[in-house]
Specification:
Elements: H1 2-63, H2 75-79, H3 83-111, H4 118-124, H5 128-158, H6 163-194, H7 199-224, H8 234-242, H9 260-289, H10 299-335, H11 353-359, H12 362-380, H13 385-408, H14 414-432, H15 435-466, H16 475-479, H17 482-488
Length: 489
């Protein structure tokens, strides 16, 4: 009897142990499942956080697009493949031939000699040899920027363990770079004034000065932004100095060969533009504007002058655009095997001025966006798009005044007013114009603004020549327009 009870107790005890083991196994399984669930939740959270960070990073990246160079022809080159557009181009060639023949016959039968606007060329390229010497110096200095930056990079790498000395070294070079950039822009302007380098040669020198300055800044900005400031081979920097782009990359898309028939065509177009500009200035602009400062400035004179020169001024502007952003850049690109020919977009289809400023000159526009707008947006104004846009406008205004004031030896603030107030106002006003009338509004205001530019600056130039001030000792003598003082006197 006792043995039966002991046996039953042992069976119950074994059952209890087995049950406890099952319970422990279930608990262990539940714990494993719970830990797996927690782990999966953690993994899901990590994935969600990564996705959110990736999305936010992509949003940040989408704010600033990167310029991608690729092999492509310019807009005009593509349009020339259309037979209708090529026929219009042929018509312009015929018109130019007739205009050239007109100037030759007029010179021969009326003046008794064929001048071909030689007076304009002679006065426009006074002391051009000084400009060429200065240009050579600027090129050598720009090449020296590479070796100076290489020196900075080597010493900076050796000071990697000494943060204070490294910061002091970089700060010293930064101040030296800013000072050198200021002098690089100032010295050619001073040379133009000192050695009396006039009009066309002075404009070309200052234009090249600004181009090289922008290239220097692009190269320095890209190298300093790299980890450990890795320097490319000098041959890549040298190619960049001559390539028709202002954005620095170590490599660009290249063509396989030079199309010499295209080179000859673009070269002839460049020569034709120079002749056309001289003919238009000497035959149509100078005769109308040369009496300013001698005659009384009346409302009738201004109205008559405006409507007389509006076609001439627009033809000079549009032909300059074609010469620089198509013929010249395509010529240099072809000789340098540079494959990306997107120097401008279809700005003539613009319905508002935002489209126009974005598409008119992509070379300068990309540089301003990548090295001014983006850097100011990131480091200076901290996400203030409006302040960054105003900064771009200010820099563009100063550059245009630099190109105009020094060659003409005058300061006439209309261009500053037109850029700072007229340009910003037109960007907003043109967006309110219905789209079907937007292109008409654009061309109408474009004609008016550029005719006023040509007319007022040419009138100020001849007024200063014909009606100079008594002295130029005070700021008012230098800054108040001659048109104002001469009309008052």
């Amino acid at each position: 009897m006792l043995s039966k009870k002991i046996l039953s107790f042992m069976e119950k005890l074994q059952t209890m142990v087995a049950n406890s083991e099952q319970i422990e196994e279930c608990n262990r399984r539940d714990n494993v499942k719970a830990s797996e669930v927690v782990q999966s939740h953690l993994e899901i959270n990590v994935i969600l956080e990564e996705n959110n960070s990736t999305k936010s990073h992509n949003k940040i990246k989408k704010k600033f697009h990167e310029k991608v160079f690729k092999s492509r022809e310019s807009y005009y080159s593509e349009l020339m493949k259309i037979s209708h557009i090529h026929t219009i181009y042929n018509i312009f060639i015929v018109l130019f031939i007739f205009y050239l023949a007109y100037n030759i016959f007029i010179d021969y039968f009326i003046n008794g000699r064929i001048t071909l606007a030689s007076d304009t060329f002679r006065t426009g390229f006074i002391n051009v040899h000084y400009a060429l010497m200065m240009w050579l110096f600027l090129k050598l200095y720009t090449c020296g920027i590479y070796f100076a930056l290489e020196c900075w990079s080597i010493v900076r790498g050796k000071l990697q363990q000494r943060e204070v000395l490294r910061l002091l070294w970089s700060t010293t070079w930064l101040l030296a770079y800013i000072t050198s950039q200021g002098l690089f822009i100032y010295v050619p302007a001073k040379v133009c004034l000192l050695y009396d380098i006039r009009n066309a040669s002075c404009f070309a020198l200052l234009f090249e000065t600004m181009r090289l300055s922008m290239k220097q800044h692009a190269f320095v900005r890209v190298i300093c932004g790299r980890e450990n400031a890795v320097m490319p081979p000098f041959r890549k920097y040298l190619y960049y100095l001559f390539a028709p782009t202002l954005l620095y990359r170590d490599d660009y898309p290249r063509t396989m060969s030079i199309r010499w028939n295209y080179v000859a065509t673009w070269f002839m177009e460049c020569v034709a533009y120079v002749c056309l500009f001289a003919f238009l200035f000497e035959n149509h602009l100078q005769p109308i504007m040369s009496d300013f400062g001698k005659v009384e400035l009346t409302t009738g004179l201004w109205i008559r002058t405006f409507f007389h020169i509006h076609l001439t001024s627009m033809l000079m502007l549009l032909s300059f655009f074609y010469f620089l952003l198509h013929s010249w850049h395509n010529l240099t690109a072809e000789l340098l095997f540079f494959a990306d020919r997107m120097f401008h977009r279809d700005w003539w289809l613009s319905h508002d001025y935002f489209e126009f400023f974005r598409n008119w000159n992509t070379l300068v526009g990309d540089w301003l966006y990548e090295y001014i707008f983006r850097d100011f947006h990131t480091h200076v104004f901290k996400d203030s798009i409006r302040c960054c846009a105003i900064t771009v406008y200010l820099i563009s205004t100063v550059a245009h005044e630099y190109f105009v004031s020094i060659p003409l030896r005058l300061y006439f603030p209309f261009l500053t007013f037109l850029y700072l107030f007229g340009g910003i106002a037109l960007v907003h006003i043109s967006r309110w114009v219905p789209r079907k009338f937007g292109n008409i509004f654009f061309w109408l205001t474009f004609f008016i603004g550029n005719t006023l530019n040509f007319g007022l600056y040419t009138a100020e130039y001849y007024t200063k020549k014909n009606c100079p001030k008594v002295s130029y000792n005070t700021l008012s003598d230098l800054w108040i327009p001659h048109l104002w003082t001469c009309s008052k006197s």
